[in-house]
Amino acid sequence: MASNEVQPPTDPGVQGELRHDRFVGGQDLTRWKSPPGRFLANLAQRVAARLGPNAALILTLAIGALIAIIMTAVFAQVYDSVTEADGVAGLDHPLLAAAKSIRSPGFDIVMTAYTNVGGTIGMPILGMIATVTLALRRRSWTPVILILTAAAGSLLMTIAGKPLYGRARPSLSDAIPPYEHSAAFPSGHALNSFVIAGIVAYLIVLRQRRRRGRVLTVAVAALFALTMGLSRVYLGHHWFTDVLSAWALGAAWLALVITAHRLYLTIRKRRTPDPG
Predict the structure, then answer these.
(1) Which helix (H) or strand (E) covers residue 79, if one does?
(2) Sequence-distant (≥ 6) Cβ neighbours of residue 275 within 8 angstroms
């Protein structure tokens, strides 16, 4: 797998996954160097022996989702303590003031349209297009499982996080309509766009053999997540720390989903003859 040539993405199912998805920049994702990693791989192998690889993947993701919800609750408590101590006042208010200073009628329209891409209609449409495209090209259910689970997990984290803290959004006088009235923490737009862009980028990177292509894919996904989060601050719909918290939670959840996929690949490798 040292070749820099792009590998054909059309190998069906498991053989295609083991041939094309195991390596990123020469690193074998099925090799676990740390003791905790090897423990997880062996545990996943035992689960797969009883339930099968796909069921083991789904179970791992379900456990990861539970961990993510618990992590959201813990994060909300820490966030609550920091904000009660006025630890973010020196960050949130100046950044909102800076956003207000660069507003203009035309830019307001552009940013409102852009932020809608990361909303409850735009992101599901983008996610579904990516899911169908990747699943058909790979002739595999793995992209469906990963993207839907990643999206569902980020949605659960958003739903769980808002009532745990109930932080108020910036004043309506500081916001650009249409106004939003749900709790501010965490920013659902920032969290969901980070996770969905991240998991789609991960799946694309797995099939890219040139470093430039991988870097460009990650950069585009990161730029999308970054600007989506900042659009929420510009519009006055969230404090910056709501967005920053969403990015942190999204990164943690994305790491759990990618780890689950690595375990799945490890199981498949151990159960399937080396495709070469």
Answers:
(1) helix 53-84
(2) 15, 18, 19
* Angle subtended by helix axes 211-234 and 188-205, to nearest 10: 170
SS3 27: strand
Phi, psi (5° rounding) for residue 29?
Answer: -70, -15
Sequence-distant (6+) residues with CB within 8 A of 144 are 131, 135
Residue 5: per-residue pLDDT? 41
pLDDT of residue 33: 86
Exposed, middle or buried by CB within 10 Å (0-12, 13-18, 19+), for 120? exposed
| Bond from prior residue into 186 cis (ω within 30 degrees of 0) | yes
pLDDT at residue 4, as a whole number = 43
Residue segments in the chain with a per-residue pLDDT below the cut of 50: 1-9, 275-276
Q: Write the single-letter amino acid at 135.
A: A
